[in-house]
Amino acid sequence: MVHADKQEVLSHNFSFLFNLTYLVQFNFSYTRSFDTLGLEKNKNSSDVSRFVLLGLSSSWELQLFLFFTFLLIYVVIVLGNLLIVMVVQADAHLFQSPMYYFLSHLSFIDLCLSCVAVPKMLGDFLQKEKTISFSGCLAQVFFLHFLGASEMFLLTVMAYDRYVAICNPLHYLTIMNNHLRLQLVFGCWCGGFIHSITQVMIVIQLPFCGPNELDNFYCDVPQVVKLACMDTYLVEVLMVSNSGILSLVCFLVLLFSYALILITLRTHLHRGRSKALSTCASHLTVVSLIFVPCVFIYLRPFCTFSVDKVVSVFYTVITPMLNPLIYTLRNADMKQAIEKLRKKQVASHCFAKG
Prior knowledge:
- There is one protein chain.
- The chain has one domain (about 45-354): Rhodopsin 7-helix transmembrane proteins (Rhopdopsin 7-helix transmembrane proteins, Up-down Bundle), CATH 1.20.1070.
- The protein starts with a helix and ends with a helix.
- It has a three-stranded mixed β-sheet with strand order 2-1-3.
- The protein is mainly α.
- The protein is built from twelve helices and three strands; from the N terminus they run αβαααβαααβααααα.
- The longest helix is centred in the last third of the chain and has 35 residues, at about 235-265.
- The protein is globular.
């Protein structure tokens, strides 16, 4: 039965990836002929074919130190999040649990999110000229917002999952069945795609004629929009209302959900309270690490602050590293599953040698 459920989930994931690839191709071809806000896309109207990334520092010594620091962090991100995905997929008990199923998707998103900006940043630390092509910049904008919005929706779903588990435990498995959790995850990815494609559809129409310096280590909407050769006030309002309001609304929904959970834990639930509080504390920590930087960056006019790059580092690098540490070090089920997987690998290795 477990094997059949796994096959159903895996086949659903493969079909989703196929459909998502088709949607990406369709939407990018569609945006070539789409005129957003009356701005016409003309290849000859833009003199900017690439952008210069100012990066985190101009000091060679500091850049060398940052290279090794972020290289170590990147290795931790990849290994930590990959470990969570593998453990959940390998452990039948965790795979059948909606919470750990959502956690594996969260780790996969963090893994992909770090791969969008960090490898480019590491390469730029060792180069004198830090440039990125216009198409490469658009790709970074698309995938950062696609993965970032998907993560926000997924965290909201995880809050709903904890609410049902704690406030309605007798009907938890009936409500959070395999069909519903597949629909919720599919909705998170689709919501992230829709959000991201609207960002790209607006940015791709803007004329750029110089300057071309982005005061960051990756391409993001606020910095790119300010380089457009036109009045971008309306575009900035649309961007803020899209990304900023999305971040704020999801954050408020999450806080409201966890407030209800804490009230339930305080007034009704006595057995297993410490474990439930530990789980909620882990989730709230992750939520704060993700949403506070996003609200700070996107829910305000596109003016530049010196702290913006630090906040960007926190969102794209530090948070994906902390997530697996928070969920594994504070979670007994994950630690037991990791130990079980380790023993299984050791036993299979000894059997192969014998």
